[in-house]
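Hi D.,

Good news: the full-assembly prediction came through. Inputs first.
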Amino acid sequence: MRLIELELYNFKQYYGNQRIVFAGADEGQKNVTVIYGENGRGKTSLYRALMYCLYGVKSLDQDQNYEKNISENPSIYLVNLKAVGEGGTAGATCYVRTVFEHGGSRYDLRRDCFAVRTSAGELFEEDSGFKLAVTRNDGNTEIFNSQTDIAVREINAVIDQRVASYFLVDGERIDRLTKATREQRLEVASGIRSLLTIDNLDTASKALAVLESKVNRELQKVSTGDYLKKLQEIENSQKNLSAEEAKKQNSEAELLSATKYKTEIDAELERFSEARTFLLQREALESEQEKLKAERLQKLGEMREFAQAASVLLAGDALSSLTAQIDNRRVKGEVPSEIKKELLERLLQEMKCICGRPIQTNSSEYAHILNWYHQANSQVFEAAVIEYFHKLGGTSARIQQDKKRLGELLASFASKDERLDSVALQLEEVAKQIGELPDVDIKKKEAYREKLIKDITLLKANIETSEAAIARLLSAIDKSTKEANELAKQTKVHEELSKKLEIVQRARAGLAEVVAHFVEEVVVELESRANALFKGLIDAAGKVNLSKVRINADYSLDVLDWEGRPFLANISAGQRQVVSMCFILALAQTAGGSSTLEMPLFMDTPFGRLGGEHRDNLLKRLPNEVPQWILLATETEFTTEEARHLRSTGKWGKVYALEVTEPGVTTIQEHIAASFQPVR
Amino acid sequence: MSISNIRVKVGRKYMGIYRCLTSDGSFHHKIFDQMGGVFVLCASLGHRADCRKDLNKGEQLFWSHNLTAEQEVVVKAIAATSSEEGLDVLTDDKAIIQIVETFAEAGMEQLIDRVLKRFIKEDDEGALFLHFTQEDLLEKELLSFIKCEAEQLPI
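Then the structure:
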């Protein structure tokens, strides 16, 4: 950017139309413009005019409270008060017009402001006009009659408002950059970032951060767990559905089969309906026949068991005969009973009768007893006979019983036989009635038919149950599928969001890395350029004591001493100003990517606290470091000495003196730089 | 006193019959559990007919103590009523058995003649055996015969 002209009309103390044409607009060798005037004459107003024209701002950094609360700083107004007064109720208009060149295009920018004093005496100001005419390389002119976004972008593309303050410098405040305060660090960081448009990267990074946060929030809303569960639910339901359908198919097949069999049996039974009675009768007779045969067989078994006992039944006569013989002998007394041999022995031993009378050995009683004793010895046999006699009685009784039993057994057997014969006869009759029909077990068939009927009923019920289950499952699957589709969308969204988040995070990380590297490189370059300038601008003492300017990682400026130790706190205000200036110039160079930046250095109170050597160095070096140098210097700052030094550079092209012609009115007087003599 | 430890003999010729009647065959069940049953039946038959027959080549068939109590009573009765010793024979188990064996031998001939004839078979050595099946109802035949004979006895 090269400033060509600044035109003021009723702006601040500049009443009427006044203009400044800057040196260096034509890229000629002379690029230094001095605007000379004491404090209060309007040097800062020129700076303000430029800022107002370019950006529409009415406040400067030094007007810190202005934007926040106008009432606290009511004195900031733009329109010349004299003109306002003259305008009366009609008010007055002021404007600032800046003509500058940049990148081969010529910019003619004018911004108007209207002011009127109210009846209450308050001054009311408002912007009243904007016009930007851009004449391109090709000769075409684009005109913006209002401050549209495009117009603003046009201007910011030349010199961004955020960096403008670095090139429109207040010399008295410049050393703040070297204050090791948080604000200073922030300002330096801000400067670096703004000028190098790293803040655009910051904006991008912030945008990515916002996007990441947004994506993350959206991601949290979506859960994939439910989707998988729903899929499993559908799978289970489908398995159950298949099983139920298979079950139903089986039941239907069985039903078909059972129905078919029933139909066959019905047909068969229909065929046999006439013979049914006989068939049933036959079945009954056959059943009885079987039963009778079994019973007969059992009877035969009983007969065989009885045979052993029956073997004695024919000995009845022998038993009777013998019984009679023994009984006869009993009657005759030949077979005494119950006489015990032991009694006779006792009588003979005691020789005493049972009545107690002694027994004489030669008595008849003794002879009888002795005779009986002898007889008793042969009675052993008789005892056996008696015993046998008892057995005879028992056996005879048994024989009688068994004879009866035998009769019953045989009668029972005969009965069975008879009944069997009868059944056989009946079967023959029934068979005749049945005729040629095949041997059919009607009862069995009827029983099977009954079973089939039960089976059919059960199968039908099963089929109904299966159908109901199938319907339920289909409904459940449908519902689950719909839910799954919704969840699938979310899942897809989740996947997509996850991918998106990853991309954003990677982009953010990548961008941060790029920014970090870029900033690192920029800081290195900045430091390098700053030091190059520092060496040229610092005074001799500084060259000895101070080795370099350092830009720390936290963007604080530092100065190292001859041993590389931080020394910022110990340097003078002037040295501090030099350091700051070096930083700003280095910033400009780095941002431009070349040795100089196409930005005019607009310095208000340029020499600030700079001492002789510093000032001399500044005067000597700066014109070569910047495309245009506009100094707004006081009489005290710009003396003949400075004039001489500046003149000696061959860079001094223009000089304007600000003259206060009446209260509140400053007039710009151009002088010839070659011959201009400062007051002091 | 029971008759014990005496081997009861029967004619060799009839051994097969005794065995057939007291053992299960391929087509029939045994009719009598013990040989004694057959023996006593035959002895009763022989005694009733007052027929005795000496054993021709008698073979020992079973032990006397295998007779049931009733069968022993019958055996003794047959012996006592047919022996010249009368009741005194009851003291001689051996004599009892010998007497009854002769009655049994004769009785078997009657049994064969009146019941078993159609079932009798003879082997090459002249020994007799029975051939009958379950359907022949031999047990019924025998019992019917016994019943019929018993009803004729004045008991």
